[in-house]
Amino acid sequence: MPYSYSKSLGMALSFAALAIVGASAQPADRSNDLQTVSVVELQAINLECDRIASTSLLDFQTAVACSMAWEELLKRGFGGSFERLLEWWRSNRKNCTKDTDCIPS
């Protein structure tokens, strides 16, 4: 059964909402929630975030979720190398359109 990348974005948005709500109660780093998401899922989330951001203004919660997902992908998917992340993004962003799921290669 194919994986739903919209579900991944929904999970990221949920993590962001939890981080925002929990921030007032606990100052702990909530980015640990994204550690359960695979690198492939993080890639799909980030491509979807890029697609949405290229066509509309992101609301605060979505921007936070996307930022957290980018940071996690940078760390786990590319070992902290922004150059490698940028190279990957440039080669994969064309695969993501309004009418198709954002599938990383």
Overall shape: it is globular
Low-confidence stretches: 16-28
SSE series: HHHH
> Count of DSSP E strands?
0
- Rg (CA only): 13 Å
Give the percentage of residues in beta strands.
under 5%
- The helix fraction, in percent, is 55-70%
Structural class of the secondary elements?
mainly alpha
Q: Could you tell me the mean pLDDT?
A: 76
Oligomer: single chain
What's the story with the biggest beta sheet? none
- Measured distance between first and last alpha carbons: 18 Å
Number of helices: 4
Q: What report would you give on this structure?
A:
The structure is a single chain. The chain is an all-alpha fold. 65% of the residues lie in helices and 0% in strands. It is built from four helices and no strands. Helix 1 (5-25) packs across helix 3. 25% of the residues are buried.
Summarize the structure.
This protein has four helices and no strands. The chain is mainly α and 105 residues long.
Essential attributes:
mainly alpha; 105 residues
List strands and helices in order, with pairings:
Layout: H1 5-25, H2 39-55, H3 60-78, H4 82-92
Helix pairs in contact: 1-2, 1-3, 2-3
